[in-house]
Amino acid sequence: MKALSLWQPWASLVADGRKRIETLSWRPPEWLVGHWLAIHATKKVDAEAAEDFGYVPDLLPRGAVVACAFLDSWMRFRAENTEHITDEEKSYGDFYEGRFGWVFSEVRKLQEPLIIRGAQGIFDVTLMLPR
After folding, report:
1. Other Cβ atoms closer than 10 A to 12
2. Tens-digit pLDDT profile for residues 112-127
3. Which of 33, 110, 38 is nearest to 69 (CA)?
4. Does the residue 55 lie in any domain?
5. How many other CB atoms sit within 10 Å of the CB of residue 105?
6. Domain-located, residue 34
7. Taking Cα atoms as reference points, which of 29, 40, 53 lies closest to residue 5?
């Protein structure tokens, strides 16, 4: 399975189903759209953001896969195509014009985080899709 590393608390926001659009400076490769993607939490934690979003920074999983998400589609942000995005969702990402949104239609949180070394970009992990 392919994986994507995200800083905490954003990996947990995806795992908890609160964040459905991951905002990045690059678009996903076309071959990844329509497939499951492991969401890996990096060891980096933005403690202030974690607290703002209701998490205890020291309790967030780090250096582990926390969920699998189905990458349904992607979009490039422009002023006219972000009007349908909720204010809550906007608080979790960087929706500036020209950035990209990776849209997850389904998320399955792992019962226990799976410790795996992450990497930048898209990387491979050995993982069975959780039920």
Report:
1. 24
2. 999 998 888 899 998 7
3. 38
4. yes
5. 11
6. yes
7. 40
Measured distance CA(126)–CA(3) in Å, rounded: 10
**CA dist., res. 58 & res. 106, Å (int):** 27
Q: What is the total count of domains within the chain?
A: 1
In three-state secondary structure terms, 5 is: strand
Q: Hey, what are 74's tokens?
A: 């992607």
Establish if 115 belongs to a structural domain: yes
The band of 73, judged by pLDDT with boundaries at 50, 70 and 90, is: very high
Q: Which residues of 16-42 are buried (b: 16+ CB within 10 A; e: fewer)?
A: bebbbbbbeeeebeeebbeebbbbbbb
Map tokens 């930048």 to a residue: 120
CATH number of the domain bearing residue 28: 2.30.130.30
Please tell me the distance from the alpha carbon of residue 60 to that of residue 47, in angstroms, as a whole number: 10
Is position 86 within any domain?
Answer: yes
pTM: 0.91
Tokens of 20: 């459905």
